[in-house]
């Protein structure tokens, strides 16, 4: 149920429930309180709407029996046992029987009560006062309804019988029943109001309070909580959006903190990697100044060493600068169609002679059609190859001859390029992370392998810009295969 329907439902409950509850509880209380008065088709309801008529109906059967006896068995009115049995039945209906003969009372079910109203009753009957359905109503201190009939006894003496119903009992019960009904109604309305308040509190106030607490926590910088989303209304949707916002913010902050940690680690790594060649350059320069390099051959050796170390530093700085541009999407891409076999063979030939001097064998294998066209940015893919081959050289096993193979295979609408080496390999735990920026599988600085940890991140980003994918397959001590794909044929350019 949405919030609008909840408010409408609450409004209807507040308007209708008091009326319905008061009416229902009052009728119920009257029905219980007036049990025994109900007669005829109207039942207890007739007592409320037409109390006098209900009272006359209450003793109708006894009155009919007495009226019949007057005509057929007048002598029965002198039979106190018969009269007493009828009176017992009337007592159950809050009434009693009176029989008079020749002006004398020969039976009175409630003698003391009758004595108080006898004169008024007989006067009203004698004056033929206004009757109500065969009965007369005496609105005295204790109001009564009286049914009467004339009797001619066997000895020709005239008399009367009276059925006296105490209306005060009815009125007293009605008053009590009304009060009971009102009390019941108040209790029921209070219970309904309490349930309504609890319902509204649970569905509106409580989630809003949760949002308030969540907002305060976010304001304090605490995102390590979870906002419950157990509602399907507008507030539930708001809680859901708020929780998604919290998760998004936490993810961003976690990523930023991880990035900052990676940057700090990278700076530490780069500082270490720069310190080593700087120390070497400084040492060789001091050696030349101090005259240690006293021969032309030694001076040339020192200068070449300084040149190599300076080149390593330049490459390190260039790599950092390149990744910054790449990460900010500031590098333009110039895609062109090239023959895949010719392009990658040229890459291998370019590195083959240099690697041969480092005790490496470089091979090229193509399993694709010689006329296969790939759409690539030649400069960027050459950097990919440079990074992959450079890693293969860097992480070689010193005890064996190094081997690197570049292999081309067909992959449907793509060409798959694999760089395979027989180096130290990558652990299974590290393989899922090697393409993350600043990640280094070798955490120690004792291996002597300088680097920033962004070489493979650069590879991954460039390949993705080519709509390709990067794969790794490696086993410790047996070598590594890193593969990537580039599209065949036409490819929409970007950059």
Instruction: Please give the domain count.
Output: 3
Instruction: List how many beta strands DSSP finds.
Output: 12
Quaternary state, please? single chain
Q: How many DSSP helices?
A: 12
Helix content: 40-55%
Low-confidence stretches: 444-450, 491-495
What is the mean predicted local confidence, pLDDT?
79
The structure class reads: alpha+beta
- Strand neighbour order, sheet with most strands: 2-1-5-4-3
Order of helices and strands: HHHHHEEHEEEHHHEHEEHEEHEE
Strand content: 15-25%
Largest sheet: 5 strands, antiparallel
Report the radius of gyration as a whole number of Å: 55 Å
- In angstroms, what separates the terminal alpha carbons? 50 Å
What's the overall geometry? rod-shaped
Structure explained in plain terms:
It is built from twelve helices and twelve strands. The radius of gyration is 55 Å and the shape is rod-shaped. α8 runs antiparallel to α9. The chain starts with a helix and ends in an 8-residue tail after the last strand. Helices cover 55% and strands 17% of the residues. A hairpin with a 3-residue loop joins β11 and β12. It folds into three domains: 207 residues, no CATH class; 108 residues, Helix Hairpins (Orthogonal Bundle); 156 residues, 2-Layer Sandwich (Heat Shock Protein 90). The C terminus is likely disordered. The strands form three sheets. A five-stranded antiparallel beta sheet has the order 2-1-5-4-3, sandwiched between helices. With 495 residues, the chain is α+β, with helices and mostly antiparallel strands.
């Amino acid at each position: 149920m949405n919030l609008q329907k909840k408010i409408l439902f609450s409004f209807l409950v507040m308007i209708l429930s008091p009326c319905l509850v008061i009416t229902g509880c009052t009728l119920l209380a009257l029905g219980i309180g007036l049990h025994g008065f109900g007669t005829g088709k109207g039942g207890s309801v007739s007592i409320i709407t037409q109390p006098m008529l209900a009272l006359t109906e209450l003793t109708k059967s006894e009155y009919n029996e007495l009226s019949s006896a007057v005509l057929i068995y007048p002598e029965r009115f002198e039979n106190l046992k018969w009269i007493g049995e009828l009176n017992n039945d009337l007592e159950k209906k809050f009434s009693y029987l009176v029989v008079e003969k020749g002006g004398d009372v020969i039976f009175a079910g409630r003698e003391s009560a009758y004595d108080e109203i006898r004169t008024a009753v007989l006067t009203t009957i004698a004056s033929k006062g206004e009757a109500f359905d065969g009965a007369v109503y005496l609105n005295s201190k204790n109001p009564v309804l009286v049914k009467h009939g004339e009797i001619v006894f066997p000895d020709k003496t005239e008399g009367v019988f009276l059925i006296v119903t105490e209306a005060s009992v009815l009125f007293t019960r009605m008053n009590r029943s009304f009060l009971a009904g009102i009390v019941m109604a108040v209790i029921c309305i209070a219970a309904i109001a309490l349930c309504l308040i609890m319902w509204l509190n649970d569905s509106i106030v409580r989630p809003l309070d949760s949002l308030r607490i969540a907002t305060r926590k976010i304001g304090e910088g605490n995102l390590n909580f979870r906002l419950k989303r157990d509602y399907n209304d507008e507030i539930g949707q708001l809680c859901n959006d708020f929780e998604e916002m919290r998760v998004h913010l936490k993810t961003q902050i976690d990523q930023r903190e991880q990035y900052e940690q990676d940057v700090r680690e990278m700076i530490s790594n780069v500082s270490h990697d720069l310190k080593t060649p700087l120390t070497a350059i400084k040492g060789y320069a001091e050696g030349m100044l101090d005259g240690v390099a006293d021969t032309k051959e030694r001076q040339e050796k020192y200068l070449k060493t300084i040149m190599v170390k300076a080149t390593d530093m330049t490459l390190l700085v260039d790599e950092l600068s390149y990744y910054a541009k790449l990460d900010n999407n500031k590098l333009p891409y110039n895609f062109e169609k090239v023959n895949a076999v010719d392009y990658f063979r040229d890459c291998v030939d370019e590195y083959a002679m240099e690697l041969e001097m480092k005790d490496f064998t470089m091979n090229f294998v193509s399993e694709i059609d010689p006329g296969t066209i790939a759409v690539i940015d030649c400069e960027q893919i050459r950097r990919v190859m440079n990074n992959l081959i450079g890693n293969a050289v860097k992480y070689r096993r010193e005890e064996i001859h190094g081997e690197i193979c570049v292999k081309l295979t067909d992959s449907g609408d793509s060409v798959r390029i694999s760089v395979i080496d027989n180096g130290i390999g990558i652990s299974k735990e590290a393989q899922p992370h090697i393409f993350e920026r600043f990640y280094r599988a070798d955490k120690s600085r004792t291996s002597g392998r300088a680097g920033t940890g962004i070489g493979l991140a650069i590879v991954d980003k460039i390949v993705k810009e080519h709509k390709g994918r990067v794969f790794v397959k490696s086993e410790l001590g047996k070598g590594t295969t890193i593969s990537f794909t580039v599209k065949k044929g036409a490819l929409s350019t970007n950059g």
